[in-house]
């Protein structure tokens, strides 16, 4: 099998790495990829970007790709998967209509209501007056979400009514709507569910860290780190989420005539009343993918091809290694507000199966030197017998990276390693 991965982040680097570990995958290509991906796979430019549908279809045809894996959400919502399917090319990723589960939070809420999925009470607002009324109804902490795609940074959770309204107004100013929700308390869990539109196969759960600073301080980001497994998670959590959330959602999407085939990312809060859905995504999450795929023993290419071909029910149960995995994101100066780019990066050579760097916002300058090219620059992945060992391996890599002005969180997986994550009680 020859696989083509669309995207350029650490998530795509992790997917490429996973595909290369599948004995049935003979070659992996990436478009556009990044310098880290280029060290292990053939990268191809996409001058029109990851939404250049015609160029992606033509590239897959030229390469003879047996499977195309679409990493980011933007090309999915833009319909790249539809065009590939229409061209007779197997693709892992939902259609544009199905990807609206991520593309529109209001649509996702509508589907959840129809499928009786447990989630937060919410209001869709199109004016400041509607937002004010909704915020007064929910009370603090206030949760305001941009209805559309916002690269993980469209959500504001605050005790300040003024700040909540300011975020809503900024969304309205761009011509959008917002979803105001009641706040869900409790630790958060990310669960990826692979589906072919009928069968649902869950991966191992992970937890990510969205705030930029230690102790969950500061603004939301695309994610500053993650870990798996979750030793504190209640028994039966995954089976419960599949039965009450993922399978009913997949069934409802199929009933509507827009089957969802790809990965349904279920973002959960474990509240005193049980798991509640915070959000759906239509693709692998970044940085959770980095730790989940680090633990997967089953061949990744075989799994994704079965989902693309509607044959998930023919696969044996997935197998996982017992080791823990932790990833820590190294971010550029100014991230997330105004990331600085073009700074030289060193200290990224070496690595092993237990500790390795995945590239995200990196590029080569005119002289061929590695430089920063985005907000989240690198993901340091550590694998070990337990979370403490995996943390140590990841942070040792981070300590070796030289990037002027860079920053990272120092508490990724710390509470879980110390056994201090508390589940809420009624």
Automatic annotation (TrEMBL):
Species in which this protein is naturally found: Flexivirga alba
Span of domain ATP-grasp: 109-309
Catalytic activity entry: 5-phospho-beta-D-ribosylamine + glycine + ATP = N(1)-(5-phospho-beta-D-ribosyl)glycinamide + ADP + phosphate + H(+)
Family per similarity comment: Belongs to the GARS family.
Segments of this protein annotated with the region Disordered: 209-228
Enzyme Commission numbers on file: 6.3.4.13
Enzyme class at the top of the EC tree: ligase
The keyword Iron-sulfur belongs to this UniProt entry's keyword annotation: no
Taxonomic placement: Bacteria, Bacillati, Actinomycetota, Actinomycetes, Micrococcales
One MF term in the entry's GO annotations: phosphoribosylamine-glycine ligase activity
The entry's keywords: ATP-binding, Ligase, Nucleotide-binding, Purine biosynthesis
Domain of life from the UniProt record: Bacteria
Keyword check for Ligase: yes
Cofactor: Mg(2+); Mn(2+)
Pathway connected to this protein: Purine metabolism; IMP biosynthesis via de novo pathway; N(1)-(5-phospho-D-ribosyl)glycinamide from 5-phospho-alpha-D-ribose 1-diphosphate: step 2/2
Protein name: Phosphoribosylamine--glycine ligase
Gene3D superfamilies: 3.40.50.20, ATP-grasp fold, A domain (3.30.1490.20), ATP-grasp fold, B domain (3.30.470.20), Phosphoribosylglycinamide synthetase, C-terminal domain (3.90.600.10)
């Amino acid at each position: 099998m020859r696989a083509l991965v669309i995207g350029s982040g650490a998530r795509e680097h992790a997917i490429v790495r996973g595909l290369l570990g599948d004995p049935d995958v003979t070659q992996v290509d990436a478009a556009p990829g990044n310098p880290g991906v280029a060290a292990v796979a053939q990268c191809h430019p996409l001058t029109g970007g990851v939404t250049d549908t015609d160029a992606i279809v033509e590239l897959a045809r030229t390469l003879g790709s047996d499977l195309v894996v679409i990493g980011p959400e933007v090309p999915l919502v833009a319909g790249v998967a539809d065009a590939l399917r229409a061209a007779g090319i197997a693709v892992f990723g939902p259609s544009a209509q199905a990807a609206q589960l991520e593309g529109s939070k209001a649509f996702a809420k509508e589907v959840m209501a129809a499928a009786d999925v447990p989630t937060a009470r919410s209001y869709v607002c199109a004016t400041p007056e509607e937002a004010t009324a909704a915020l007064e109804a929910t009370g603090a902490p206030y949760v305001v979400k941009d209805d559309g795609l916002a690269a993980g940074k469209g959500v504001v959770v605050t005790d300040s009514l003024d700040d909540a309204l300011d975020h809503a107004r900024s969304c309205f100013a761009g011509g959008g709507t917002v979803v105001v929700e009641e706040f869900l308390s409790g630790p958060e869990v990310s669960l990826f569910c692979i589906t072919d539109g009928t069968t649902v196969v869950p991966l191992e759960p992970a937890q990510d860290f969205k705030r930029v600073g230690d102790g969950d301080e500061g603004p939301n980001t695309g994610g500053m780190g993650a870990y798996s497994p979750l030793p504190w998670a209640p028994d039966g959590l995954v089976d419960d989420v599949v039965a009450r959330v993922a399978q009913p959602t997949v069934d409802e999407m199929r009933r509507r005539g827009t089957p969802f085939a790809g990965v349904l990312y279920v973002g959960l809060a474990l509240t005193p009343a049980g798991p509640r859905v915070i959000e759906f995504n239509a693709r692998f999450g970044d940085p959770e993918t980095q730790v989940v795929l680090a633990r997967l023993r089953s061949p990744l290419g075989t799994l994704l091809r079965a989902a693309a071909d509607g044959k998930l029910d023919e696969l044996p149960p997935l197998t996982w290694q017992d080791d823990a995995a932790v990833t820590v994101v190294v971010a550029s100066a100014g991230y997330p507000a105004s990331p600085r780019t073009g700074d030289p990066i060193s200290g990224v050579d070496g690595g092993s199966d237990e500790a390795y760097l995945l590239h995200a916002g990196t590029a080569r300058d005119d002289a061929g030197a590695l430089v920063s090219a985005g907000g989240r620059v690198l993901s340091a992945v550590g694998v070990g017998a337990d979370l403490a060992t995996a943390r140590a391996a990841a942070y040792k890599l981070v300590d070796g990276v030289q990037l002027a002005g860079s920053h990272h969180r120092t508490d990724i997986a710390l509470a879980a390693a110390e056994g201090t994550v508390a589940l809420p009680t009624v």
